[in-house]
Amino acid sequence: MNDLVLLHAFPLDARMWDVPDAFTPSLRGSGEPDLGAVATRVLAELDARGLDQVLLGGCSMGGYVAMALLRRAPERVKGLVFVDTKHTADAPEAVETRLAMAERVEREGVGEWLPDALLPNLLGPNASDTARALVRTMILEQQAEDVAWWQRAMAKRPDSTDVLEKLDVPSLVLVGEHDKLTPPDVAAKLAVTLRHATSERVEDSGHLLPVEQPEEFRARLERWREQVGL
């Protein structure tokens, strides 16, 4: 059974991954907003699939959930793939922005305003029409309560430096050259925090590298897996 687990970005779903045989669970929230609760559900799904130890990857919010999982069960992870994500908590202004969007989506629902607001920061300037259409479709098909829940959960996530510094597993850190939300300098800081990290910048890509350049993402992932024996 394949042991690669990939966690999706906000506000998307498993369709963002074009990686055969990977387990790509949908991250849904319920109860008090807390990414730790999502991580606990992911662990339960791993148990149900008989996956004792996995290569765990996450893009953006998926990376935050991966870090929450590491707080709970680091022994379940034999390698990490962080894509366009960061390990630090949000600054106060970012928290305010998230909470404001949560309130708006609860008032107005998910409509064209949401992808219009998010797409300029999610995709690079040269993203294909296919990538733009896929991201827009995924955003429009999310439930308003999920979008609001994710934003509130991300707003309260802790800094994960202490968790990552303790890890002794190989890690791959990928970032798009044109990522506006977690730019290359942020990815570099994440890589330094990890003990055994390979850090790579992917040219001509934005914040959703696996959507914009799926073939390049798969190629870099497979090359790294061969190098580290995973």
TrEMBL record:
InterPro entries for this protein: AB_hydrolase_1, AB_hydrolase_fold, AB_hydrolase_sf
Entry annotated with the keyword Hydrolase: yes
Annotated ranges, domain AB hydrolase-1: 4-219
Signal peptide from the UniProt entry: none
Source species: Lentzea alba
Molecular-function annotations in GO: hydrolase activity
Top-level taxonomic group: Bacteria
CC annotations in GO: membrane
This protein's name: Alpha/beta fold hydrolase
The entry's keywords: Hydrolase
Keyword Repeat: no
